[in-house]
Amino acid sequence: MSIQIPKGLYDIVPYSEKEKWKLIDYWHYVEKILHKLSNDYNYKEIRTPIFERTELFERGVGQATDVVSKEMYTFKDKAERLMSLRPEGTASLMRAFIENNFASYSQKHKLYYFGPMFRYDRPQKGRFRQFYQYGAEAVGDPSEEQDVEIIDMLHELYQRLGLKDLVLHINYIGQANTRNSFKEELKKYLKPHLNDLSKESQDRFIKNPMRILDSKDERDIKILENAPNILEFITNEDEESFKKICNLLSHLKIPYKINNKLVRGLDYYNKTVFEITSSYLGAQNALGGGGRYDSLLKEFNGPNLPAIGYAVGIERILQTMIAQGIKVEDLNNPFIFIIPLGEKSKNYSFTLISSLRKNRIPCDIDFNAKKIQKSLQIANKCNAKYVIIIGDDEMDKKKLKIKNMEKRTEEEVKFDTLIYHIKTLYKAG
Ligand code: AMP
């Protein structure tokens, strides 16, 4: 039997009729948007390794979280040290922040990352074992304005991608002592219903009771209807802060929904948390989310600097784009496709394609062209914008026709003005 890809993984490919979200051109399109977005908000990219010491995630993300306790790909290296494939980006970024002594450069930092993450979970629609995240983190600014800048950036990402019908959920989970007293109240409320909760929520009751609020199980949702509300536990100061954030969001005309059940899965969050959902995704409906994590750097023995960030899943973004019929314009297809017919034209065609490429115009050629129809099919398959056929006649007259494959129009151009002409066409798009 031939070797197959492990469960929960997929290939990003140049061709796919059925699963368009796997097309590399779509990936490049999204990647271009997120690099430009980050640049527009003055966030700098940081690249960290895909595996780290297991301890980093245990301490950073939290041992009680599903991500760390159940979903990590952990292995021993040859020196018997425990390593894990990164399940998320923030812990590694904060480690790098401390190790590279970023705090000595300035007190405020805006960073972003893009790359594969790994979680050993049951694969399903929108849930993979290797998936890509793009995330941004702002370190050193405790202000509400910083919270809103991060949310605005995330909102702008979806605007640029053209995504529709998304909901921004926002909540405020306060400081550690707020959460501790809330947890006690929540447990008191849930205790009489314990046997009726889903198996997953029963497990969480001891380890991580706040996560029960996140449950997608219908029975749990019903039981949680009258559960205590964290917003009634936060301090007056926190309440003011949350109000300010909401007002600023309204001021920027960013629609949001206060969702007091939103707690997010990772341990490090405090104060503001948020999530973006799409109704096009089914059960795994979160496109992205984030929140404040003011004590993580300190937890890692780093500087006592507050931080806030978000992460989005690229697969889910692409799947939503496809479901919403969003067209990707920037496809990396050849602009010109050359079909040389006969020996005479071969040398000329070769020089032509070589100089087009040196002029940075994407193009291709059918070196083995024999029948026009066959070569045109190849040009069509690779979605070339223009086709040039060069035969003996063209070589004799020193002019040729450029065919627009989409509009089915053609124009005649002389050899000596050809490169200039194509460059003008290319610039015009
Ligand atoms: P999290 O780090 O769990 O807050 O996840 C942030 C985003 O990453 C989610 O909203 C998803 O879009 C994406 N994501 C998380 N886990 C997976 C997964 N197993 N497969 C695909 N996307 C994921």
Kindly report how far apart the N and C termini lie. Answer: 47 Å
What is the average of the pLDDT values? 94
Q: What would the principal axes of the Cα set say about the shape? A: elongated
Question: What share of the residues does DSSP label as strand, in percent?
Answer: 15-25%
What are the segments in which pLDDT stays under 50 over at least 5 consecutive residues? none
Molecular structure report:
There is one protein chain. The chain is elongated, with a radius of gyration of 27 Å. It is α+β, with helices and mostly antiparallel strands and 429 residues long. The model has no long low-confidence stretch (mean pLDDT 94). The chain contains 15 helices and 16 strands. Helix 1 (24-40) packs antiparallel against helix 5 (144-161) and helix 5 (144-161) packs parallel to helix 9. The chain starts with 23 loop residues before the first helix and ends with a helix. It has helices at residues 24-40, 54-60, 66-69, 90-99, 144-161, 176-190, 199-207, 218-223, 236-251, 296-299, 314-323, 343-358, 372-381, 392-397, 418-428, and strands at 44-45, 51-53, 74-76, 82-85, 109-118, 130-139, 166-172, 257-258, 270-278, 286-292, 307-313, 336-340, 363-365, 386-390, 399-404, 409-414. Helix 12 links the parallel strand 12 (336-340) and strand 13. Helix content is 37%, strand content 21%. It has an eight-stranded mixed sheet with strand order 1-5-6-11-10-9-7-8. The protein has a five-stranded mixed sheet with strand order 13-12-14-15-16, sandwiched between helices. The chain binds adenosine monophosphate (AMP).
